[in-house]
Write a structure and sequence with these properties.
44% helix, 347 residues, alpha/beta, 14% strand
Length: 347
């Protein structure tokens, strides 16, 4: 498929609220101001941001199960976004939902959370829930895809009652669905009109091409020439096999190569190496080493021209955090969007 620059000019842009701000004073209202001023058209509303705002707005501590307070705060966030000309594209990140044993307390909790988040979606005015592929250990949820499919089908049906959609994302440190092929297989088996994919440049390249535990920063189980060939085959398959209308949005970020390879084990915080990498080492495209343009082009070759959403967790090359002002940061992301589209267009 030809990718002319003119065909890419109307792609709408979004910014994840959780991925901007580096100080306590960077509250959700200030984040919205910076995102809007940079020219973005929507936000991904992050639950941690909603919790912080709810506590500030309600003037008492609001917890993750305090759904009445969260809904009240969500209605205020909706009004603030409307005043800034911002759409709330999705509520995120809904995690560790699928796979729990029937009758377990964890499964009951997963569906309590689902019902509560659907209430929040109604309050804030979004129609889409982002669900990340679970990173709960195999010992707890197993690897039975039939169970994952059944749980996600039930969630999709719950969302359909409100005319809502489910965007399923492969997290590259997931214990059961780390690759785009995995989540696409599950989405097809769920077989509901309101479930699709959240694809992500970091999650795709970070799982199939890069590795933060090696000196090279690449997967080293084969020669680099074979790695490049296999990765391109995967991207070509994505372009050919995934219908454009089953891609609900594309998240954009790059990654720094860690100066010292991570230890290949679960950390004290429970994060696997790629999870830690995702949380702190994700700058804008062209500031890291991932083949972001290749992944983006593969998605565009499906015919997709929907939302590009920037989710940037830039803790600096050492992942220790860095200070910045939000408006220039958001504007740099918008400039990066222009550069990315130019790089993706056929010359």
């Amino acid at each position: 498929m030809s990718l002319s620059l003119s065909s890419l000019q109307n792609i709408p842009t979004c910014y994840a609220s959780c991925s901007i701000g580096c100080k306590d004073e960077h509250t959700l209202p200030k984040k919205l101001e910076a995102i809007s001023a940079a020219g973005f058209q929507a936000i991904e509303l992050s639950m941690p941001d909603l919790l912080s705002f709810a506590t500030m707005h309600m003037r008492h501590e609001v917890g993750p199960y305090d759904y009445d307070d969260l809904c009240a705060a969500a209605r205020v966030v909706k009004t603030m976004c409307e005043a800034k000309g911002l759409k709330i594209l999705i509520l995120q990140p809904f995690a560790n939902f699928e796979g729990w044993a029937e009758g377990s307390d964890e499964r009951k909790d997963a569906f309590v959370r689902a019902r509560g988040w659907i209430r929040i979606m109604e309050a804030c005015g979004t129609d889409m829930l982002q669900v990340g592929s679970s990173d709960t250990s195999e010992e707890k949820i197993g690897k039975d895809h039939d169970r994952f499919v059944s749980d996600l089908r039930e969630l999709a049906d719950m969302l359909a009652e409100k005319h809502f959609r489910l965007a399923y994302e492969n997290w590259c440190w997931s214990t059961h669905a780390p690759y785009w092929r995995d989540v696409w297989d599950i989405v097809q088996k769920v077989d509901r009109h309101n479930i699709g994919l959240c694809l992500d440049t970091f999650q795709t390249a970070g799982g199939e091409w890069a590795d933060p535990t090696t000196i090279s920063g690449l997967l080293e189980n084969e020669r680099k020439e074979m790695l490049e060939e296999d990765f391109q085959i995967s991207l070509d398959d994505l372009s050919e096999q995934v219908p454009k209308d089953k891609i609900y949005f594309l998240q954009i970020s790059d990654a720094y190569k860690p100066k010292e390879p991570f230890k290949d084990k679960v950390g004290e915080d429970g994060l696997r190496p790629r999870g830690r990498w995702s949380h702190d080492f994700r700058p804008l495209p062209f500031e890291g080493y991932l083949p972001v343009v290749k992944v983006t082009k593969a998605v565009l070759k499906t015919g997709f021209r929907g939302w590009f959403s920037y989710e940037i967790f830039d803790g600096g090359p050492e992942g220790k955090g860095k200070e910045y002002e939000m408006e220039p940061f958001a504007k740099a992301a918008m400039e990066c969007q222009k550069k990315l589209l130019e790089a993706c267009a056929d010359s």
